[in-house]
From TrEMBL:
InterPro entries: COX15/CtaA_fam (IPR003780), HemeA_Synthase_type2 (IPR023754). The keyword Membrane applies. This is Putative cytochrome c oxidase assembly protein cox15. Keywords: Heme biosynthesis, Iron, Membrane, Metal-binding, Oxidoreductase, Transmembrane, Transmembrane helix. Pfam families: COX15-CtaA. It comes from Ixodes ricinus. The lineage of its organism: Eukaryota, Metazoa, Ecdysozoa, Arthropoda, Chelicerata. Its cofactor is heme b. It catalyses: Fe(II)-heme o + 2 A + H2O = Fe(II)-heme a + 2 AH2. One of its GO terms (biological process) is heme A biosynthetic process. It is a multi-pass membrane protein. Pathway: Porphyrin-containing compound metabolism; heme A biosynthesis; heme A from heme O: step 1/1. Its main location: membrane. It is found in: Membrane. The keyword Membrane applies.
C-alpha cells in the first residue's frame, strides 16, 4: 500500500506489506494491527527538520532546568525574597548600600516578620540569588525560544503545523512568566507562603509547555527507518496515554503537597503513623476542602496516585513486553518501568527523611523524567502506522 499522510506538518510516504496473519495469531492482545513507520517526503529538507528539532530539544531541556530550579527555590524558601518584578530589566544590587535597601524592602513583608527576623544580610543574599537565578533562567529560555522562532520562521523552515505549535509555545511561555509573578504575589500579603493552587498552576503550565516542546522536537528528529511488518495492540497505545494522564495528575498532586508542606505531616511508610487511613483525613468542612487544603488528605492522595502509577506502569510493561514492538519502543517501555520505580523510591525516601532539599529536588526531577519517558514511548507508538486488519 502506498499513500501520503501528514504528521506534525511534514508529508510522509507510507509503505506497508499487507500480508495475511495466521488465524489466531496474538490472541488476547486486542485487535490486530499492521504497523510500519512513515518516511518523509521532501517538503522540507532533512537539514531544516534537524535544526528545528534541535532547537526545540534545547528549549525543552532548558525547561527541565527551570522546573528543577523552581523546586530548589521553593525548598530553600527563596521564592519570596524578590518582592518586585521587572520583566525586562532586573539586575542584582551593585553595592552594600543597595543590598541593604533591598533587604529593607524584604523586611516589610510577612515572611520576614513571621519567620526570618533573625536573618542576616548574607543569608538574605543567598536566598535572593537563588530566586534571581530562577528568574534569569526563565528569561534565557525566552531569549533562546523567541529568537530561534523568529529566525526559523523567516528562513521558511517551519511547516504549517510546526508554526501552530511554535505560536502556542510562544504564548504559553509569556503566560508562564506572568503566572510565576502571580504565584509569588500570593505570598506577599497576609500569608507568608504562596497559594498551593497557584503553585500547582505554575508547575502544570511548565509541564505542559515542556511536553509540547519535547513532542515537537521528537517529531522533527525521529529517524524514519522502516519497521518490519508486525502487530501490536491498540490497547497498548491507549494504555500509554493513560499513564501520561496519571503521571500528570500525580505531579499536580505533588504541587499541592509542596504548597501545603504536606510532606512533613506523616513521615512513615507504608502506613501513616499507625494507621492505613489517618483519622484527620476529613477534618475540614465542607468535606471537599480536604482534597486541596488538608495536608493529611493531600499527602494521602499523593501516595495513592503514586502507587497507582507504579502499578499501572508495571502492568503495562508485563503486557507490552509480550508484544513484538520495534527496538526503540521496547527500549522506551523498559525505561518507563525503571523510571516509575525510581520515582517511587525517591518519593518514599524523601518522605522518610523529612524532605531534605537534595532528595526532594531529585524527586521533582524524577517526575519530569517519568513524564519524558512516557512521552517518548507514546511518540514511538505514534510513529507506527496502525492499519486495522
Amino acid at each position: 500500500i502506498c499513500s501520503d499522510a501528514n504528521f506534525l506538518g511534514a508529508k510522509y510516504h507510507v509503505l506497508s506489506r499487507n500480508k495475511p496473519l495466521a488465524k489466531g495469531a496474538f490472541q488476547g492482545f486486542g485487535r490486530r494491527i499492521q504497523v510500519t513507520v512513515a518516511e518523509p517526503l521532501a517538503e522540507l529538507s532533512q537539514k531544516s527538520q534537524k535544526v528545528v528539532g534541535g532547537w526545540l530539544l534545547v528549549c525543552s531541556g532548558m525547561a527541565v532546568g527551570s522546573i528543577i530550579l523552581g523546586g530548589v527555590t521553593r525548598l530553600t524558601k527563596s521564592g519570596l525574597s524578590m518582592v518586585h518584578w521587572h520583566p525586562f530589566a532586573e539586575f542584582p544590587p551593585s553595592g552594600h548600600k543597595q543590598w541593604e535597601q533591598e533587604f529593607l524592602k524584604y523586611q516589610e513583608y510577612p515572611e520576614y516578620k513571621e519567620y526570618n527576623q533573625a536573618m542576616t544580610l548574607s543569608e538574605f543574599k543567598r536566598i535572593w540569588y537563588i530566586e534571581y537565578l530562577h528568574r534569569m533562567w526563565g528569561r534565557t529560555i525566552g531569549a533562546v525560544f523567541y529568537t530561534g522562532a523568529a529566525w526559523l520562521w523567516w528562513r521558511g523552515w517551519l511547516s504549517r503545523r510546526a508554526k501552530g505549535h511554535v505560536a502556542v509555545l510562544g504564548v504559553g511561555l509569556a503566560f508562564q512568566g506572568a503566572l510565576g509573578w502571580f504565584m509569588v504575589r500570593s505570598g506577599l500579603h497576609d500569608q507568608p507562603h504562596v497559594s498551593q493552587y497557584r503553585l500547582a498552576a505554575h508547575l502544570g503550565t511548565a509541564l505542559l509547555w515542556y511536553s509540547l516542546s519535547l513532542w515537537s522536537a521528537m517529531s522533527h528528529l525521529a529517524y524514519q527507518a522502516q519497521v518490519p511488518f508486525q502487530t501490536f495492540s491498540p490497547r497498548m497505545y491507549r494504555g500509554v496515554h493513560g499513564v501520561l494522564g496519571l503521571v500528570f495528575v500525580t505531579a499536580m498532586s505533588g504541587a499541592l503537597v509542596a504548597g501545603l508542606q504536606a510532606g512533613l505531616v506523616y513521615n512513615s511508610f507504608p502506613k501513616m503513623a499507625d494507621r492505613w487511613v489517618p483519622s484527620d483525613i476529613l477534618a475540614l468542612e465542607p468535606k471537599l476542602r480536604n482534597f486541596t487544603e488538608n495536608p493529611t488528605t493531600v499527602q494521602f492522595d499523593h501516595r495513592i496516585l503514586g502507587e497507582s502509577v507504579v502499578l499501572m506502569v508495571t502492568g503495562l510493561w508485563l503486557w507490552g513486553r509480550k508484544q513484538p514492538l520495534p527496538p526503540r519502543a521496547r527500549k522506551a517501555l523498559h525505561c518507563l518501568l525503571a523510571a516509575a520505580w525510581l520515582q517511587a523510591t525517591l518519593g518514599v525516601s524523601t518522605l522518610l527523611t523529612y524532605v531534605p532539599v537534595s532528595l526532594a529536588s531529585s524527586h521533582q526531577a524524577g517526575a519530569v523524567t517519568l513524564l519524558s519517558v512516557a512521552l517518548w514511548l507514546a511518540h514511538e507508538l505514534k510513529l507506527l502506522r496502525r492499519i486495522p486488519k
